[in-house]
Amino acid sequence: MEYRPNLDWMLTDLAKSVPGIQMIVVLSADGLRIARQGGDPDAGDRVAAACAGLQSLAGALADEIVSSDGEMRMILIEVNGGYFYLMAAGPNAYLAVLSDIRCEPGMMSSRMRDLVARLGPHLTSPPRRNGKVV
């Protein structure tokens, strides 16, 4: 089994600095949870898997924008009672946040960008083939 350092502690500052955050997940492009803050591990795994599909769809839509390079940078979804944020966080890695309605979207996206800028090199996932790092 490959050693992966515990990155959960990196998310604590974000969770404490923005009201309304319920869960933060760092995931690989193929939908595997790398780190989590809040919620339970099974929920984190479900969020990571769903995010992989969302980032793929966003990339496909970005390809239709003439001036776009096709790379997804951020997704914001508002639902009754809260928000879902997904941001590119490093090579093959993404940062996802689920929050209630107290979380102001402008503040959240700014804090996520700050976290990615500070910790981007740590929020990466090497490509895998047949379950092994290549």
Specify the structural class.
alpha+beta
Total number of strands: 7
Radius of gyration: 14 Å
Strand order of the largest sheet: 2-1-5-4-3
Domain Roadblock/LAMTOR2: 8-99
Protein name: Roadblock/LC7 domain-containing protein
InterPro entries: Mycobact_SerProt_Inhib_Rv3364c, Roadblock/LAMTOR2_dom
Pfam family, one: Robl_LC7
Features:
single chain, 134 residues, alpha+beta, Beta-Lactamase, two-stranded antiparallel ribbon, 3 helices, 7 strands, Roadblock/LAMTOR2_dom, Roadblock/LC7 domain-containing protein, Mycobact_SerProt_Inhib_Rv3364c
Overview of the structural elements:
Pfam families: Robl_LC7. InterPro entries: Mycobact_SerProt_Inhib_Rv3364c, Roadblock/LAMTOR2_dom. This is Roadblock/LC7 domain-containing protein. With 134 residues, the protein is α+β, with helices and mostly antiparallel strands. It has a single domain, classed as Dynein light chain 2a, cytoplasmic (Beta-Lactamase). 32% of the residues lie in helices and 30% in strands. It is built from three helices and seven strands, in the order αββαβββαββ. The chain has a five-stranded antiparallel beta sheet with strand order 2-1-5-4-3, with helices on both faces. The longest helix has 22 residues. It is globular and about 40 Å long. The two termini are 14 Å apart.
Helices and strands in order, then pairings?
Elements: H1 12-17, E1 21-28, E2 33-37, H2 41-62, E3 74-79, E4 82-90, E5 93-100, H3 105-119, E6 128-129, E7 132-133
Antiparallel strand pairs: 1-2, 1-5, 3-4, 4-5, 6-7
